[in-house]
Amino acid sequence: MAWHRELLIGFDLETTGTDPREARIVTGAVIEVRDGQPLGRREWLADPGVPIPPDAVAVHGISSERAAAEGRPADQVADAIADVLTGYWRTGVPVVAYNAAFDLTLLSAELRRYGLPSLRDRLDGRDPAPVVDPYTIDRWADRYRRGKRNLEAVCAEYGIALDAAHDAAADALAAARLACAIAGRHPKIAALGPAELHHRQIEWYAEWAADFQSFLRRKGDPTAVVEAAWPLRDLAAGVV
After folding, report:
1. How far is residue 102's CA from residue 111's CA, in Å, rounded to a whole number?
2. What is the 3-state composition of the chain as percent helix, strand, coil, each rounded to the nearest 5?
3. What φ, ψ does residue 111 adopt, rounded to 5°?
4. Could you point out which of 11, 24, 57, 209 has its C-alpha 20 to 30 Å from the C-alpha of 166?
5. What is the pTM of this model?
């Protein structure tokens, strides 16, 4: 049976900002999905330990006051999420995250911030895999489609309901369903095994980064650098 008909793990974080090396976790969700149907979920609310900027509150609706009053310590949340995800990876179950390079890099930065074992440490030195990133796959499979590529827009393209965008659980479920829909539309994607699909996404993301970097340089920024690593960025880097 094709990978998109088997168990998938939807994953999403809502955060304090847009820089994955500096932003902190506010909420997180991990949802088990089979053939597009949710089977179970785990959700977390963290006290990030820093004020949540108004722009971020406007996106996900979690205030600093609520996070401080109801959230668990940030180190405990990061540790728990990492343990859950690596537990699935150890058994070969794909984790689906929309724009995975953001969420997994941010989680990795949080683990390092609190002196906790990294994702690779928890996997005995192996990279986190397999990861399925509908953002990366759709951008390769339908390269010339016009319009936005955010989660809401791509869900609309594939007919996936997203009633509560920027709620971690809703976004995690939508990402898993979107992965199934993309595989259903593109047989070449469905035919790949999870491990092969993971490796292809590394290549596709690097190709996109090189193209985007060239575009930025042609448009007048000769020093523009677009990071090509997927699904984990270098935590020490400071590029796009």
Report:
1. 14
2. 50, 15, 35
3. -60, -45
4. 209
5. 0.94
